[in-house]
## 1
Amino acid sequence: MLMSLFQFTTRRLVSQAYCGLKPPPSKKQRFCLEMARPSSNMADFREVFAKAKHIAIITGAGVSAESGVPTFRGPGGFWRKWQAQELATPEAFARNPSRVWEFYHYRREVMLSKHPNPAHLAIAECERRLSKQGRSVVVITQNIDELHRKAGTKHLLEIHGSLFKTRCTNCGNVTADYKSPICPALAGKGAPDPEVADAVIPVEDLPRCEEDGCNGLLRPHVVWFGETLDADVLTEVEKELDICDLCLVVGTSSVVYPAAMFAPQVSARGVPVAEFNMEATPATNRFRFHFPGPCGTTLPPALARHETELIS
Ligand SMILES: [Zn+2]
């Protein structure tokens, strides 16, 4: 499902190459040259930023990584003997709900000692400030750690759900849950070291639904590998992307998921897309700006108050 969406948006990206949309002849050549290589000119970005009324900010794993949040993916990214893609699946949960809950319990507990970094804070401050000027900021994130919320972001679309929400496998009820531990049986469990044995918690002692008469087994309200994104959240995302007049891609690249699902449709409308990430950028991309480096360093000056802002 995700793959086919990705291929679809990639095809759209190719078929709607901006130079093919026939901008005025005098500007055509200049525009294509600009598009051939994204600009890293902060003063130019700030001009665009100052005029934007609806800013969509897509954030990825890089923003969380700068707060020291482990992803359990890639080289060295293990919890016990496993990586996230082996535990964050409906099959793993059906087979061994105790082990999967230990994994998520550990991830929730880790977050007690993690804090928003300057990128999270700059985004939240920008939203607060711009809202007083009748301008809007929305954050569309794949991160499940709630650091954007902790930083003060109000308008937040969590496309992969949250570590701090549960969903009942029986009645479907979704609940915010910040308890530590989430249930008594998980207290002191979830240690990540490879030699630690499974706690083998009886399923009736794992987190259970508290809705009247339900008592169903709860699962983390996160999108697992092989699952589709929530349709209501996607509808919200589409609505925001349709009205945004500036799009930032932060802590990921606009050509990899999740931004690759969204950025091409924004860019196809001629809306500027600005990337803030560590990765080098292929020169053929059709976004306007690229600011290399840690987003905790590059983003705060980009989103700071502009001299034309009268209300702060
Ligand atoms: Zn229930």
## 2
Amino acid sequence: MVNTVTGPLSSAELGRTLIHEHVLIGFPGWFMDARQPAFKREEAIERVVDAFQELHGHGVRTVIDPCPMDLGRDVEFCAEVSRKSRINLICATGAYVESMGIPWTFKALPVEAITEAFVKEIEQGVADTGIRCGVIKIATGDGEVSEYERKVLTAAAHAAKLTGVPLISHTENCSCGQDQIDIATGVGLRASSLIVGHSDGRDDPAYQKALADRGSYVGFDRFGLEQIVPDSVRTKNLKALVDAGHRDRVMVSHDTVNCWQGALGNSDPAEMQKALPNWRMTHLFEHIFPELKRMGMSQEDLDHIVIDNPRRYFDEAASA
Ligand SMILES: [Zn+2]
């Protein structure tokens, strides 16, 4: 069984799954930019429901929202979107990268206490909502794992081991994926209990293959975010990984943000969306999958990646 925001669900019922899309986000201190318009929750929910209903039209039945505790997470917002759009949503416990998160409290707590906090959100739910988390988010910065991040990752790995819930990560610039696997396997998890997120962030097929060789899932999870890497590079490297025998290790998504609380620092999210017309949850189905088929992949390959891989990711973690 997998924890969704509306209750436990059999992994066989997950169906077509996108593994990394954000229902809503608020960067730490977003409310401090008092020039921004007030956040209108009901309007925001309606807008997000529209986007998820469109996704439902493409046969998607489940979305993982890996928003960590410190990025404006709102699991009741997610539950309302899930009920109205009929898409299963899986929310996360866990913490973001030190440079963009809220590290003060976990810096003060020992590993054991952080582990207990994560386990509490998985077994009993977030605060008193009864909404239980189905994944644990971990995150590392560019080039090296900070002392804080190492502590939080270690706590997350222990919580994963205790609960059978898998890990999903944030990385920067295709770095530290190996460190994440080392920390996870170091506490006795299988490498397959981890999706190394944002592994499509650079034209680096050797890095991607090395993660797959160890048995972790490789996140090609930023399709449409072409100011980081063109999608043509993502499709080329995804196809190369499949051709190398790693179809079982590929995960796909867009890392869209369907609703912003406040702005993104000094950037205007609406302007950003305008500059990235393909950064939408339906982009894979409208453009990328047809392109991958032209490159020689079959519908069976694509179904395997969006249905079988997510199901196996939860099943193997639960049975470890
Ligand atoms: Zn993300």
